[in-house]
Amino acid sequence: MTPLTTSDFQAARAIAHPYIHRTPILTSAALSEITGANILLKAELFQRTGSYKIRGPLNVLSKMSAEEKSRGIICSSAGNHAQGVAYAARVHNIPATVVMSVNAPAAKVNATRGYGATVIQHGEIWDDAYAHSRQIQEEQGLTYIHPFDDPRLIAGQGGVGLEIAEDVPNVDYVIVPIGGGGLISGVAMAIKAAHPNAKVIGIESSGAPAMSRSVSEGKRVVLENVTSVVDGLVVRQVGVNNLWVVQNYVDDIVLVDDTEIFDSVVWLMERCKLVAEGAAAATVAALRTGRLTIPKGKTAVCVLSGGNLKLEQLQGLKWN
């Protein structure tokens, strides 16, 4: 894809501005003490719909033709993209169909319906829902809204990085969760445009390392098995555009396992009074476990991507 510029991210944010919050940058004395670095949290869990995923669809739908809108839209999602698309569709008065996996959190399913979308549940993970949604799209002639592999969507998600660059001008590291790659694609290009020397680090689940495997092998791989239950981090194959961006703009990818992630969900509740979903807590898990080390005195921002937590996933977890 053609690299996006600061003006692309600014234009996308201007489109989304009436409908989103500029989420705060929070300090974390506890994480700073653990790491010896200055750790900040970009709290997208306070965003409308409960995650950053509202940003991209607002930009995509604003750039669709009248003919595309008239056909109605469809997407597939583990949950957060569903809510973002449903909300954006309501803003634009476009009928929306969303295909979600059968194990998508009930709160995300109900919220998506609450925004007015028709929800169909199919398959175990996002890739299954994606295949089914493409079939429905073909049958009904709907317009497809991809959850990560679309430059217009990436421009919208990049608003997160744009705001970090503006609010933390001395940023040295930005730590971002990776599922399909839409968020880190936008954040990485936005950060590097403003602060070329800042490092962007991606965090993946060790049970679904589609991006790190693809970077290692120099091509998109399809994971035969995924073992993670962190819905925001689980895809079998990342996007074409997303892999290109990560190859060119992301400095490293770190893997954490589900136990470490959910332990950090609880830790964020206890120590920071924040309810973060698993994908969001993965960035904190990388620091708490020492899998990612930030040099002493440097400033790092963890992107807390969302707060739509499936509480039952914490049952049986043991923590100190």
UniProtKB/TrEMBL annotation:
GO MF terms listed in the record are:
threonine deaminase activity
Instruction: Determine if Repeat is one of this entry's keywords.
Output: no
Asked whether the keyword Lyase is assigned, the reply is: yes
Limits of the Tryptophan synthase beta chain-like PALP domain: 19-306
Cofactor(s) the protein requires to work: pyridoxal 5'-phosphate
Give the originating organism: Ottowia thiooxydans
Keyword annotations of the record? Lyase, Pyridoxal phosphate
* InterPro entries linked to this entry: Ser/Thr_Dehydratase (IPR050147), TrpB-like_PALP (IPR001926), TrpB-like_PALP_sf (IPR036052)
Annotated EC: 4.3.1.19
Report any Pfam family annotated for this entry. PALP
Instruction: Kindly give the SUPFAM superfamilies that the UniProt entry links to this protein.
Output: Tryptophan synthase beta subunit-like PLP-dependent enzymes
Q: What is this protein called?
A: Threonine dehydratase
